[in-house]
Amino acid sequence: MVKVFYTYFNTPLSPNKWQTYLDQLPQNIQQNINRKRRWQDQHASLFGKLLLQHALCHTGYPKDSLNRLQYNKHQKPFIDNNIDFNISHTHQYVICAISRRGQIGIDIEFIRTIDLSNFRNTMNPKEWTAITTAPNSHQKFYENWTIKESVIKADGRGLSIPLEHIQIEPHKARLYNTDWFINQLQIEPNYVCHLATNWENPSIDLKLIEF
Fold it and tell me: Partner of 61 for a Cys bridge, out of 40, 65, 82, 93, CB 3.0 to 4.6 A?
């Protein structure tokens, strides 16, 4: 089972509500959130940690588990070896996936117009052809991008892995000698979201949380 919780925001919280939510988190996490300059980044970070706290509680962990939050050398967060989780955010949405079954990674992106040529080297020739010949090239690009991002996050080594080393296949992606199984999550029409797991056909429980 993979539990996936998500939320959205489009305006800043009131000062009182902001402080109420912030006070639910450990001091070091509060400080990291407050260091961010843009209110959008502060809110995305806040809601990401609140979703993680919610997810941990729903998976049997105590509410103060964020006090034990650590990071590996590639900056992937973890609590212990019994659970894996991942957070992603873009534009107005924040999403958190958690599971006791195995390794997971999640990525969500808002589909916006960009200069695709700047990302040519992140795709292999077959993937690039599929993007440039698709009816909606930006849609196809973000589908591929979120698949690759979810894989490197599940793997745990993050952007130390060149994205072009990930080969996208139907319903899975291959990173070197490892297969990662890919599931697309439907959030909103203008967003693309993919979940990567190291086991096939995961049961996914997707829930919207409104703070």
Answer: 65
User: pLDDT tens, position by position, for the chain (211 residues)?
Assistant: 999 999 999 999 999 999 999 999 999 999 999 999 999 999 999 999 999 999 999 999 999 999 999 999 888 999 999 999 999 999 999 999 999 999 999 999 999 999 999 999 999 999 999 999 999 999 999 999 999 999 999 999 888 899 999 999 999 999 999 999 999 999 999 999 999 999 999 999 999 999 8
CATH 1.10.10.10 fits 2-208, yes or no: no
| Interatomic CA distance for residues 72 and 160, integer angstroms | 13
* Residue that the structure tokens 């996050």 belong to: 153
Q: Indicate yes or no: pTM above 0.70.
A: yes
Indicate the DSSP class of residue 208.
E
CB atoms within 10 A of CB 72: 11
CA distance 108 to 139: 12
